[in-house]
């Protein structure tokens, strides 16, 4: 084949007009270009021609179809009769071992509600709080290790429950049927509100803390069971939000006080710029529902610039007293500010 004929053949290859045999000749020529005896074209476009041929060779290549992969399915293993019988036997043995475990599990996870002799008992044997509703719709959150019992259906003129441990009550309002919580130490009576009772059987103290509404608390011994928050017992205590009562078993005494962390009941603005101290104290009273006593005459001329944010109530009081050179004390649920008044600074 002359040089001119070969050039023509290359052109026909690039144009896709070669027969399979001619194409094979061109591709063999291209593959031998790196060899010493490979035919070199007498053209200045040798490199460009080679690139064009290479592109065409790549286009002519048929995509390789991956060979199918055959994997023996495990099912063929189980299709052996002797292994099928072995599997059935193992399955049956497994059920025999599993059944007692399931039975034990069912026993331990059964709802801890029991009915006996007309009483319903809820016991929390878990490590988390458990919530449930009473027949009147009241929501009870029972702490771990605590139990609550009541007459089935919460029947009777009064809604009476018996607590051992700790629970938070959100009682449905029904003034016609007072709600009474009996513990070993105290009796708590409400008409419809939310509060927490903590009274473990072996505890030296029992406490009742109010979240909202009004609650009547009295010692269990000689309790006046017809008492209500509206008509409290003679020796009982009436609690308002952010207040609690602590009953000492040894002293058999009820001590009324504020809860450790009073919450904001009515949000107020706590930013004051040269405002009378009385205005700051009034805002704190409204926000937390607390009573704050102070000598109005001594603080009459006092102004203060102060801003409160998320500090607890007692921290707010501490900051205010520090700015006034005062201090506060607490007696039952009342806060008292002690101050000598505002003295003019030496520079003024």
Automatic annotation (TrEMBL):
<dbReference type="GO" id="GO:0016989">
    <property type="term" value="F:sigma factor antagonist activity"/>
</dbReference>
<dbReference type="Pfam" id="PF16344">
    <property type="entry name" value="FecR_C"/>
</dbReference>
<dbReference type="InterPro" id="IPR032508">
    <property type="entry name" value="FecR_C"/>
</dbReference>
<protein>
    <submittedName>
        <fullName>DUF4974 domain-containing protein</fullName>
    </submittedName>
</protein>
<feature type="domain" description="FecR protein">
    <location>
        <begin position="126"/>
        <end position="215"/>
    </location>
</feature>
<dbReference type="Pfam" id="PF04773">
    <property type="entry name" value="FecR"/>
</dbReference>
<dbReference type="InterPro" id="IPR012373">
    <property type="entry name" value="Ferrdict_sens_TM"/>
</dbReference>
<feature type="domain" description="Protein FecR C-terminal">
    <location>
        <begin position="270"/>
        <end position="337"/>
    </location>
</feature>
<dbReference type="InterPro" id="IPR006860">
    <property type="entry name" value="FecR"/>
</dbReference>
């Amino acid at each position: 084949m002359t040089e001119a004929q070969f050039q023509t053949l290359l052109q026909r290859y690039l144009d896709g007009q070669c027969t399979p045999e001619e194409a094979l000749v061109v591709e063999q020529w291209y593959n031998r270009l790196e060899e010493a005896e490979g035919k070199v074209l007498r053209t200045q476009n040798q490199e460009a021609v080679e690139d064009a041929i290479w592109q065409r060779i790549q286009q002519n290549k048929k995509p390789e179809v991956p060979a199918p992969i055959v994997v023996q399915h495990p099912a063929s293993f189980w299709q052996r009769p002797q292994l099928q019988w072995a599997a059935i036997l193992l399955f049956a043995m497994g059920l025999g071992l599993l059944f007692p475990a399931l039975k034990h599990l069912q026993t331990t996870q059964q709802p801890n509600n029991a009915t006996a002799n007309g009483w319903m008992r809820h016991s929390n044997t878990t490590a988390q709080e458990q919530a449930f509703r009473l027949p009147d719709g009241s929501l009870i959150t029972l702490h771990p290790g605590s139990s609550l019992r009541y007459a089935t259906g919460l029947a009777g003129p009064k809604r009476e429950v018996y607590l051992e441990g700790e629970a938070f009550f959100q009682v449905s309002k029904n003034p016609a049927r007072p709600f009474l919580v009996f513990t070993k130490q105290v009796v708590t009576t409400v008409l419809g509100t939310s509060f927490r009772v903590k009274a473990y059987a072996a505890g030296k103290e029992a406490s009742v803390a109010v979240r909202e509404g009004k609650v009547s608390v009295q010692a269990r011994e000689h309790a006046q069971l017809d008492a209500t928050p509206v008509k409290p017992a003679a020796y009982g205590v009436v609690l308002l939000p952010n207040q609690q009562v602590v009953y000492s078993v040894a002293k058999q005494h009820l001590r009324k006080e504020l809860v450790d962390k009073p919450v904001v009941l009515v949000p107020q603005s706590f930013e004051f710029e040269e405002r009378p101290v009385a205005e700051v104290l009034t805002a704190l009273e409204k926000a937390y529902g607390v009573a704050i006593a102070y000598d109005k005459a001594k603080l009459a001329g006092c102004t203060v610039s102060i801003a409160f944010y998320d500090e607890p109530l007692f921290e707010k009081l501490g900051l205010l007293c520090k700015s006034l050179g005062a201090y506060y004390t607490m007696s039952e649920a009342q806060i008292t500010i002690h101050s000598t008044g505002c003295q003019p600074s030496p520079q003024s």
